[in-house]
Amino acid sequence: MPFFVLIFCNLLRQRVRTLLTAFGISLGITTVVALGVVTDSLKSTAQDILQAGGSDFAIGQSGSADLTYSTLTEGQLETVATYSGVEHATGILIAVSRLGSNPYFMTLGLEPSDLPYFQVPLVAGRNLASNAPNEIMLGQEAANQLDKKVGDTVELKDRTFTVVGVYRTGNTWQDGGGMLPLATVQELERKQGLMTLIYVKAKPGTDLEELTTRIETNHPELATLRTLSDYGDVDQGLQLMDAVNLAVSFLAVFIGGIGVMNTMVMSVMERTREFGILRAVGWRSRRVLLMVLGESVLLCLIGAVIGSILAVIFTRLILVFPVVRSFLEPQYTPGVFIRGLVVGIAVALLGALYPAIRAVRLAPIQAIRYE
Amino acid sequence: MNRNRVVIDVQDVVKTYEEGRIHALNGATLQIWEGEFVAITGPSGCGKSTLLHLIAALDRPDSGRIVVNGVDLAQMRDLSLYRSHQVGLVFQLHNLLPTLSASANVQLPMYEAELSFWERRAKAQRLLEAVGLGDRAGTPPTKLSGGERQRVAIARALANDPPILLADEPTGNLDSEAGRMALDLLRSIQQERGVTLVLVSHDLQIAAAAERIVRMLDGRVVDEGAARSVAQEAVEREQ
Q1: Structural domain includes residue B122
Q2: Which whole number is the average pLDDT over A360-368?
Q3: How many whole angstroms separate alpha carbon A292 and alpha carbon A349?
Q4: What is the pLDDT of residue B230?
Q5: Distance to chain A for B161, nearest Cα, Å
Q6: Is A1 in contact with B107 (Cβ distance < 8 A)?
């Protein structure tokens, strides 16, 4: 019998206990993986936000705790637009409002004249018209959720808007929301003359590094955003999620480790005589150690697999809520599953260390006589 | 095999338990020659099993020396290697792992012998056939009779072809028929393979199967001689 199979057979002796322990571990792994999936998805959404409309980079208010708190003025938009190397600058006001059953409907206010620059692919209808304050374009996901088509109307903050177009950008946060004239959103949000982000399209051949450095040097109150790490300059949310994820991982290792230790200590105590026999027939302490650790690692790997499957099911299940679907598209990257696996192995080693040492230290003759 | 070579040399061994209150061995001295079949006998508590366990390196003496094949066990670096390759152990209570098959039990000592899985399995099968259980390789010990379990235990003791076989009351838990079969098996293995067989038994009839009987009392070797004469004397004493 291969050594690995022997380890597996040992786990099967107490099937119920093995399954319960694996399930206990899997709950921790589920949390770690699910949080990882959500964090990665939010990062993907953030990446989408930075690259919306085919822009080269975005500009926000430096030091904002949250992206929606970023406040820029029309004057700053005009200043940025005058920089050499800037082909076009589009100001966007992002707001979150209740629309139908969705309390977190994302509205994007932008000048209708900027739409050609912002590259919004229509699947139905037309772009917003100039001087038409009561028109709205819906993302395809939002249109599906609201069951609206071109020509229908929607109620937003006690005002009625006519759907003139349906677009599909491929970005979850845009497709789950709607676009309105900038002036309209400013009026609805009482933020006249203000916007959230400026999207910059640079002239061909422009050194983006030099351009962004120049803007930030001349305007310390502005933060240029090209990468996810830049995103942290205007939104602490992702960093917070990362911190929570790390804390949950440690918690899962600690709590899972105690559970595994309990199981493995019981297993080692019950099998004291068996370890004595194995030592008596010539097993080295290293092999006994490997066997106990192997059982623990295998137990935790089973937990990690169950936990990863549960996490996938859980993250698919939360998509039944339209509000989640409007800003989150689960990203199942290998990294989150590897993290789950690493947590599982850490749980296994932490939990099995003491019982394994105990098994190794048993004197053969005392272990054989153990009843 | 060299009948003139001492393979096990026990020199004035003392072993106590419970902080010296119980003297299991009290200066035991014994020499066993290569290829010999020796029975250690004596009343319950005389120290015969303790002596066997010390020879098997399952425990350490308080004082004295046990030299096996010229090497003092106290100086031996790797006792696991000694236990897996130099000696084969048969216990009174077979000590098989109940969740494993007979074959898997026989394979246990082979994990330290750097054999592949296929080699281990083939060798276990050969050993089980040698003890008459070739057709029970996949059967767990719980579904074997007492005699069959002991034969599996004997096959396990031979797993790494050790030159010394140590049997601690191997028939003590068996009925007379099964006990006789186990004893015959041990004796035939000793003769065919030329191994040194040390058997501990309180039963003189069992011990009489050996070439030499060593009698112990109060932790010391008090008498030894050819099996036939020692057994005869003992029977006469009892009468």
Answers
A1: no
A2: 80
A3: 10
A4: 65
A5: 12
A6: yes
Q: Are A264 and A295 in contact (CB under 8 A)?
A: yes
B30: containing domain: 1-77+196-239
Pinpoint the alpha helices (H) of chain A: 3-12, 15-50, 74-81, 115-118, 140-146, 172-175, 182-188, 208-218, 228-231, 237-270, 272-280, 285-317, 322-325, 334-361, 364-369
Mutate to test the interface with A, among B25, B59, B80, B116 (most CBs of A within 10 A): B80
Q: Which of B60, B108, B156 to mutate to test the interface with A (most CBs of A within 10 A)?
A: B108
Structure tokens at A85: 């190397």
pLDDT of residue B1: 58
What tokens were used for B209?
């199967």
The pLDDT tens digits of the residues spanning A310-320 come to 999 998 888 88
Q: Per the domain annotation, does B7 fall within a domain?
A: yes
The reply to whether residue B80 touches residue A279, judged by beta carbons under 8 angstroms, is yes
Give the DSSP H/E element, type plus range, for residue A370. Answer: none
Would you call A148 an interface residue with chain B, using a CB distance cutoff of 8 Å? no
- In this prediction, residues A109-117 reach a mean pLDDT of 88
Q: Do A1 and B100 touch (CB under 8 A)?
A: yes
Interface of B with A (CB under 8 A): 53, 56, 58-59, 78, 80-85, 89, 91, 95, 97, 99-101, 103-104, 107-109, 111-112, 117, 120-121, 156, 159-160
Place of tokens 């057994």: B231
Residue B211 has pLDDT above 70, yes or no: yes
Q: B173 versus B81: which is more confidently predicted? A: B81
- Domain locations in chain A? 3-46+238-369, 57-225
More confident residue, A120 or B120: B120
State the CB neighbour count (10 A cutoff) for residue A101: 11
Cβ distance A2 to B117 less than 8 Å, yes or no, reads yes
| CA-CA-CA-CA dihedral for A190, A193, A199, A203, to nearest 10 | 170
Q: Report d(CA A80, CA B44) in Å as an integer.
A: 100
Domain count along chain B: 1
Q: What is the dihedral of CA A30, A35, A37, A41, to 10 degrees?
A: 160
Q: Name the β-bridge partners of B17.
A: B22
pTM beyond 0.95: the answer is no
Percent of chain A with pLDDT over 90: 32
ipTM of the complex in this document: 0.89
Q: Which residues of A touch B95 (CB under 8 A)?
A: 273, 277, 280, 368
Is the Cβ pair B58, A280 closer than 8 Å? Answer: yes
Q: For A291-325, give the DSSP string.
A: HHHHHHHHHHHHHHHHHHHHHHHHHHHGGGSHHHH
Strand, helix or coil for residue B14: strand
Report if residue B54 sits inside a domain: yes
Domain CATH number, residue B237? 3.40.50.300
Task: Band the pLDDT of B239: cuts 50, 70, 90.
Answer: low
Structural domain contains residue B173: no
Tokens (6 digits) for B62: 């308080």
